[in-house]
Amino acid sequence: MTKKYAELPPDRVDDLKRAGLKIYQNPALFCFAIDSVLLAWFTKTAPNDRVVDLGTGNGVVPLLLYGRNREIGKIYGIEIQEKLYQLAVKSVALNNLEEKIEIILGDLKDAPAILGKGFDVVTANPPYRKKGEGRLNPVPEVAVARHELLTTLEDVVATAAKLLKPRGSFYLVHLPERLPEIFTHFTRYKLNPEVLLPVQPKPGENVNLVLIKAVKGSRRKLEFLAPLWVYEKDGQYSEQVRRIFEGEE
To answer: CDD domains this protein is in (predicted)?
Structure first.
């Protein structure tokens, strides 16, 4: 079991390298990974858009979305794990963004009841693995983030569909092997996949992540983009990923 919070190492502050934003993290509990950074980069928002991030963790996606579009409307992040919620709240306060970003402690399935409907954009970086699949991390906070212990892929898609206005956009990062299931849920909840970006660790290697944009009520054909790779063959970040990390793209 995780140590009691009082016994954990102190939270650290990391630079998000965008618009001067910083974030609280705790390596013993949770640190964001490249998938969250790519999700925020892939997500397109307009001025005054209202946004919900499902399973926000320490709030990295809302912060990066604001950093990319400071004319964005209100951003809500909902997180069920109390310690991660606390990290997110501290991060929002650290950046003086309480008027722009609100973090809610709760189950993402309750987001429509808490926040209502009619949102322009919903984002999600949900647990990738089904319950009972693979090794469970001994740290509960990490286990919940990686495995579907408290929510399922269908829960996430159904909630996004309820939150969105007609023609609202849902941005999701997930594993390529779960694409058939993702598309099945999209069809059931009337979300049409419009853009799919495969992500490779290195050029020529198998895709290990997919970024998907789905639009509520759309009939547009799917645009399948050329792969983005994270590393060059020499192990250095690719130029595009470096630019994303450095806030240049």
So the answer is: AdoMet_MTases
- CA 216 distance to own-chain centroid: 18
Report pLDDT digits (tens) over 213-247: 999 999 999 999 999 999 999 999 999 999 999 98
- Which runs of E-coded beta strand occur in 96-230? 101-105, 119-124, 164-174, 191-200, 209-216, 223-224, 228-229
CATH number at residue 114: 3.40.50.150
φ, ψ dihedrals at 136, nearest 5°: -90, 130
Largest CA distance in the chain: 53
Mind listing the pLDDT tens digit for each residue in 172-213? Answer: 999 999 999 999 999 999 999 999 999 999 999 999 999 999
Q: Give the Cα-Cα-Cα angle 51, 53, 54 (nearest 5 degrees).
A: 135
Domain that holds residue 205: 5-245
Of all helices (H) and strands (E), which one includes residue 157? helix 153-163
Q: Is the dihedral of CA 47, 59, 68, 165 positive or negative?
A: negative
Using the 8-state DSSP alphabet, how is residue 18 labeled?
Answer: S
* pLDDT digits 0-9 by tens, 125-169: 999 999 888 788 888 888 888 888 889 999 999 999 999 999 999
Place of tokens 């009939």: 219
Instruction: Report how many domains make up the chain.
Output: 1
